[in-house]
Amino acid sequence: MNQNPSHNRVPMANTQISYLRIKMPETDPSAAPAATAAPAPATAAAPAPESTPAAPKLTGAQLKAQKKAEKAARREQSKAAEPTPAAPVANDKQSGGKQNKSKQDAPATSVASRPKKPVPTPAPAPPKQPAGPVIPECFSHLPMAKKLTLSKTDKDVHPAVLSIGQQMATFTLKDNVTRLEATLVAFKKVIKEYESPPGHVFSRHFLPHVLNPQIDYLAECRPMCFAMGNAIRMLKSKIAKLDLDQSDEASKEQLCDAIDLFIQERILYAEESIVSKAASMIANGETIFTYGHHRLVRKALQAARAQGRSFEVAILDDPYERSGQQLAKILRNDGIRVYYYPSLAGLSINLRRASKVLLGAEAMFANGSLYGPAGTCDIAISANDADVAVIALLETVNFDRDRVSADSLTYNEIDPERYSADSLRLLFDATKDKYITAVVTESEEGNATASTSAMLPVLRKMDERTL
Questions:
Q1: Alpha carbon distance 316, 369 (integer Å)
Q2: Model's pTM, two decimal places?
Q3: 34, exposed or middle or buried, with CB in 10 Å at 0-12, 13-18, 19+?
Q4: Least confident span in 190-199, 200-209, 295-304, 453-462
Q5: Torsion angle, alpha carbons of 243, 248, 249, 252, to 10
Q6: 278 vs 272, 275, 308, CA distance in Å?
Q7: What is the DSSP secondary-structure string of 290-315?
Q8: Does domain 281-466 have CATH number 3.40.50.12280?
Q9: pLDDT tens across 193-224, in order?
Q10: Which of 49, 222, 396, 465 could cysteine-pair with 145, CB 3.0–4.6 Å?
Q11: What residues have CB less than 8 Å from 104, skipping those under 6 apart?
């Protein structure tokens, strides 16, 4: 039998003990075979048999090492015998203390061995429905008035501008010149209350940081009419020409004077001049045909009646707005005989009694097309077929010398109260210049009955004189 202890297979827990025994001095030859005997149990070192002499006493360090090794052996055996429990998740808010205790006491299975619960697949979200009716694609380029909530407005918008913006969105301010005058009055308040920040020049800071937010807000409420665009262009031109060295007070006074002059010449004087010219064109015994209720047409008819002329008026009303009813009541109170037609039905027959057609318009394009309320084009074409003169009343501030229009879809607005995915109503239409006999403006350069082709040079001269 091999006496070398290094060839004996001794358990790991007793390896250190055997090594200690080898280093000790041998007192009895019979002790060597005892050392190479079968290994002792792993739990503790068994005492030597009675036939063999007692093992020598171990030192304190040796006993400490022996106990440490035995303890490690027991720990390894317990780990191998019992499965590793999963750490319980404590949640005091969801379960009570007794439930947590029972979960910790129960043997937990391995995470990998647990059956996986099927994860429910979320249902697909329904498609978002549009907030309002979808506008057909062929009309998607046309704007529409909308009422903005105060939370969506810019903090730099003046209260006066906020007020008129809401009135424009709800069509409380509907007439183009009325909207223009209200806008200019509100801009005057903005100018008077403005103060340049330290280190900034009035003309360089006012336009981008103060005036532009007001313009953007008004354009969001409702698309600006042509008169508003021309007035804003004039105001920006005046701001650009301000002297950089002059004081804020002088700049504000200069701009306010320019606005007052614009209102006086291009609105008040223009209205008075057009009304006088149109009234002089009405003779005794004539029947004047008109459409809806336009401010200039009404004042021209009243002026002609005030001058002692006797005539009749035939009113064709807009079937959607019924503004002609109001005009009929006003003229009846002034002693004028009125014929009222509620719709376009029978238009060609109703025009047979007419001597002239007086129409108010929204604007005129550079190619002479008349931009007016929806239905104006039908009346002009029917009057042309009946050989009846068509006269348009229009201020020059409503002329657009840059843009042209070939049909009613180039520039227009959608009625916000009458549109859906299947149908919609346009507020305006375009009438070609060949159906317009004459245009009456306040210009002194042209005649009272100038043709549409002669109005563009007149407009250029007026713009040069104004700017």
A1: 22
A2: 0.70
A3: middle
A4: 453-462
A5: 70
A6: 10, 5, 15
A7: EES--HHHHHHHHHHHHTT---EEEE
A8: no
A9: 999 999 899 989 999 999 999 999 999 999 99
A10: 222
A11: 88
Domain with CATH 3.40.50.10470 in the chain: 281-466
Q: Rg (Cα) of the chain, in Å, rounded?
A: 50
What span, in angstroms and rounded, lies between the C-alpha atoms of 216 and 34? 107
Residue ranges, CATH 1.20.120, the chain: 143-268
Amino acid 147 reads K
Task: Count Cβ atoms within 10 A of the Cβ of residue 148 and give its class: 0-12 exposed, 13-18 middle, 19 or more buried.
Answer: middle
pLDDT at 16 over 60: no
Tokens 């939370």 belong to which residue? 151
The amino acid occupying position 262 is: F
The pair of structure tokens assigned to 247 is: 């004081």
* CB 245, CB 202: distance < 8 Å: no
What is the DSSP-derived secondary structure letter of residue 424? E
Class of domain 143-268: mainly alpha
Burial of 335-356, coded b for 16+ CB within 10 Å and e otherwise, reads: ebebeebeebeebeebbeebbb
